[in-house]
Amino acid sequence: MMSDEIIVKGNPNIPNIALTFDDGPGRITPYILDVLRKYGVKATFFCLGCCIDKNIAAQDNTGRYITGNEIVKRANDEGHLIAIHSHDHRDLTGLTDEEILNNELSRTKKIITNLIGKTPVYFRPPYGSIDDRVNNIAKALDLKIVLWNCRSADSSTEPAIILGGSLKYKYGPVDIYSNIMRNIENGSIILCHDGHSGKYDANFGIVSALDRAIPELQQKRFNFVTVDDLLATGNYVIQD
Ligand SMILES: [Zn+2]
Known about the structure:
Elements: E1 6-9, E2 16-24, H1 29-38, E3 44-48, H2 49-54, E4 57-59, E5 65-67, H3 68-77, E6 81-86, H4 97-116, E7 122-123, H5 132-140, E8 144-146, E9 150-151, H6 173-183, E10 189-193, H7 205-219, E11 223-224, H8 227-232, E12 237-238
Parallel strand pairs: 1-8, 2-3, 2-10, 2-11, 3-6, 7-8, 9-10
Antiparallel strand pairs: 1-12, 4-5
Helix pairs in contact: 1-7, 4-5, 6-7
The chain binds zinc ion (ZN).
GO molecular function: hydrolase activity, acting on carbon-nitrogen (but not peptide) bonds; metal ion binding
Keywords: Hydrolase, Metal-binding
InterPro entries: Glyco_hydro/deAcase_b/a-brl (IPR011330), NODB_dom (IPR002509), Polysacc_deacetylase_ArnD (IPR050248)
């Protein structure tokens, strides 16, 4: 495959689909991991270096507090694919080549490699924002760019955000469930969040939305796979 291809969807003829989570690790990631484990589902996590570094503490369902890097290790140990989102969730097209390469991509690649002992291969730029420079730097780092074709819209917020306050999310769990079910098709790459731009907690509604959507989609004979497995069958769809 050409490394400057931007992948948006898997093989349209095979009922494999990929759940992807951006902006984590975050406080809701342990609960997402619990739901994925409950249904034997493997997913892909596009992580922020700042959230791994910052060591946010999250309580899991045993009452134990675990840190950002322990969450990513757990996800890796449970068979999920760990990928790169960036370090600080900035729009990369507004940065210098030097900043994109050193501050964002190669830095996060190193953080993940040191943590899990595997070199990440996939990269999703914040806001899906890409230009030729971002594309070329990703290529130089041997990163494959993966976007999405199915939005859960879990990160959509109400327009009025109180400065310094918490986010008010537009959609609750039933809306998020419907957004996924309405848009799903063979090869879908589903955009979800387990954090929010490195600054806020993700929409907790994604947890119960998935607890309802996953078994229904499995009943419809969809297989949940990592991005790696989604692309392994070839015939994936790239952006025009
Ligand atoms: Zn993001």
